[in-house]
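Researcher: I need the complex structure. Ligand is zinc ion. Inputs:
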Amino acid sequence: MSVNQQAHAGPPYGQPQPGYQGYQQPAYGGQPLPAVPQSQYGAYNGPMPGYQQPVPPQGSLRAPPTSGAPPPASGASLPSSHLAYSQFGHGDVQNGIPASAAPMPRPPASQPFLPGSAPTPVSQTSTFQQYGPLPASVQQLSNHMAGMTVGSTAASAPPPAGLGYGPSTSVPPVSGSFSATGSGLYTPYTASQGPPPTSVSQGLPLAQPPFPGQPISTQHPPTQVPGFASPPSSTGIGPSSYPPTTGAPRPPAMPGPPLPGQTLAGPPTSQPNHVSSPPPPAALSGPHPGPPLSGLHGPPPSAHPPQPGYQMQQNGSFGQVRGPQPNYGGAYPGTPNYGSQPGPPPPAKRLDPDSIPSPQLNELPPQQKPRHRIDPDAIPSPIQVIEDDRSNRGSEPFVTGVRGQVPPLVTTNFLVKDQGNASPRYIRCTSYNIPCTSDMAKQSQVPLAAVIKPLATLPPEEALPYLVDHGESGPVRCNRCKAYMCPFMQFIEGGRRFQCCFCSCVTEVPPHYFQHLDHTGKRVDFYDRPELSLGSYEFLATVDYCKNNKFPSPPAFIFMIDVSYNAVKSGLVRLICEELKSLLDYLPREGNMEESAIRVGFVTYNKVLHFYNVKSSLAQPQMMVVSDVADMFVPLLDGFLVNVNESRTVIASLLDQIPEMFADTRETETLFAPVIQAGLEALKAAECAGKLFIFHTSLPIAEAPGKLKNRDDRKLVNTDKEKALFQPQTSFYNNLAKDCVAQGCCVDLFLFPNQYVDVATLGVVPYQTGGSIYKYAYFQLETDQERFLNDLRRDVQKEVGFDAVMRVRTSTGIRATDFFGAFYMSNTTDVEMAGLDCDKTITVEFKHDDKLSEDSGALLQCALLYTSCAGQRRLRIHNLSLNCCTQLADLYRNCETDTLINYLAKYAYRAVLNSPVKTVRDALVSQCAQILACYRKNCASPSSAGQLILPECMKLLPVYLNCVLKSDVLQPGPEVTTDDRAYIRQLVTSMDVAETNVFFYPRLLPLTKADVDSDALPAAIRNSEERLSKGDIYLLENGLNIFVWVGVNVQQGLIQNLFGVSSFSQISNALSTLPVLDNPFSKKVRSVVDMLRVQRSRYMKLIIVKQEDKLEMLFKHFLVEDKSLSGGASYVDFLCHMHKEIRQLLS
Ligand SMILES: [Zn+2]
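Model: Output:
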């Protein structure tokens, strides 16, 4: 690609990404124009002058107004030719993200996305700004026994829009709203105020101050505490009306963690703040024998800062039967906007005749207050949070123009418009508002981390990063810190220099890159250059960025097939060879290239290696055997790596012959390290990077380097020596991995073990080279081939970069200190990966090294240097700007719990290499208790110590953390093998946030509730056995498996329609696929399965589970809100435990 190729032709950019090369460069080859008047901007050292200017609202928005978009700034100078780009919404940003000092509307995050509502007029933005961060709502839980109440209050933070609560930072979150009033046993919530009634759209005057006492609150009906009214035995409140609970007996509930001195009262639960539908009522019906838990009081959710005098609205009278769990039938009324997205309160509720002001609750005779049980519906529900976010944020694109915006949850479908910050598909952070000082950060214990997926796949509606070619001069960078040109750099002195946003150093603009500034200080080519206006883009790298100063050759793929007895006998060898014949036509290719540039090679092995010459000129492939494996070499150079099209017939012949050649093998021993060495040597000889696809079946016990012994020892579980199970048994593989990374040799390992193979050791090279491991235990052709072939196809075809190095730069004050993922590091800053594919993430932790400022915020720049599948050397740049705060409340209001869990899981999974598992679990609990205690102490308003108050953005932290604690790595059940644990440990380490979310808290869908006429998935339900009905069929997925659970009382007609058999007893649980039947239910279920599989990076195995069948134990393992067989606590019990930990910290 050449530089300066095109004349300034117009607005290249608005069009759909024109293949990589399509970005047209404006003619920037011109000379610097000396006559540029000094800019109106002050000294260049000034803090982002452009930002300080008042931003006149632009009269007409060219871009369709998006509600989250910042107000248009002065875009006046845009030439009309730039209009095409305006679809990105002319950011209002000039040269970057506006600093907070500029009038910025609340990040869209807090604005209500009201589908269908009129766009917020620009003029209102100033009103919004002052509210700052999202209101956090709080959930209060109290321990009844201790005399506390459970209540959930909503936001302690000031409501965002419109209500005139004043600057957010100054308002103490509220928990006080619930003043535990009181007396005695039962303290009702005094107020439950829903999220601030936000609503501009409802016609509330924007600035209307809330009047205390005014019942605004209908939105969150106070939750009543369920267990309360019912007598301990449970007949109480409406069990009968409780929706589907299975009759299955539950194991007695586990007593909460032992709390010295105190019986745990039930955890208090409160209704999830956001329940818009009928308040959860009352007691649980399922037999949930109450442990020593006392009843919970339901707390009213409230959302606001303490508003004394608010009356709680109570929906449904006390003791009334509970309505269906919200979300259950999918009947989700309206689009409630809660929490961070306050929406208009449904006015209707106020008129509910059943509503009773909470104070009346006090009048109930004490004996009616049940005290034994916590209503699971009253504790924060993941399903509710997910549904709320979907309805509040799924309908509007997420526009990245504003600093520090918290993106929608990973479970919400949304489109992203890049206006200067990287899409959350590339980077997600644990918090979008970072404490200004390290003391604050330490106090909160909230880890500051970013989960980065540099090559993430985007939905077709979103443009791929543009490729920018600066020709031989390469990308423009800061002279000192070497940060790449990005939207945050400030051009000064009429455009002749720029000041680095990371280190403040001033650098001359190279002559070819010079451009004038407009009156706002923005370069006039701002919208023509991705690196000035977008959060993510690519640069074509020059030879300076290449190994040995030579442009790389296209990479190679080498297929290495175990042909020992087990592999041949299971049919695996034949299957792989058959598949490769067609799969080789689908190797990754770049842009519009007709064929892939990737060359291929083939090796088979057992205890010796066989190389194949498949040169196109040969009539038949030639095999060369290497039996001296001690010092691996490649016996042939020419003809080993070939172009698929040129050698098509020879390759086909080889793939036909391999299964025959080894059909009668009796060799059971295999080797492993020499296989990798062979691939590595072949790539070295060819002077290219590449990927090895190794198909392997057994523990490599053949005499050879890297030979392993069976050292599996389940007795080590739960001892101080358990960590040895996760460590490799020899350092040989670590050294090999280092050599592989140096060459750009990435290893993907497909394992087919029938017994222990020592995944912890075999996985070292795949893991450290950025590769993947797939594991198919007890592989059987009939049941497993579909999954294996789908995984293989995807793995071969997916986008991958080779010889990759990633560095994360940060603005002054913080720096990247720790990294988690599948990679190798030879120094403290560069993450090296022989290969990095579109599914891999790297989690980066940051620490303070100085103070940060609220004005300038904090910036991250992730730069990934890699070789594309066509051999092009590129840099992919992702930029993200975050806010900084001096108030802890702002931190807690802008956290992302899913990302936090991703970080914590990775942290814990790495820690088990060095510490006993129990120590790791305790540390996790302790850290989370500190996080929540800090919130309680500093951000929540004073209230009874017995109340559990959770920040709105972290109200799911306890339930999700419990899932991590109970996971197979940290608390394995007896059925979990050592290899499974090592496998999961490595897998999770590279997962993105969406994957960890569903992995730790699986998705459970009632299939029998699915609407067969719609494409939508049925609404998910919570992962607890008591949510299952014997008469229904459910699907559970966790990203690796799909279970279809069939209740014993399912109607015969449904069974016939889904399984094609006439009764429950005839359903075979050996099925690995659902029969293809021509009826709406069968089609619907199969389409749901297909839809879920498409969303995941691995093909999920389908497992049919019949209720009361032995496989059900496996299924129940994934009902993560229940107590687990391995001793993991139920959600309710764990919440009690966390509450106790927090109280200890506070006392
Ligand atoms: Zn710099």
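Model: Summary of the prediction. The CA atoms of residues 701 and 707 lie 5 Å apart.
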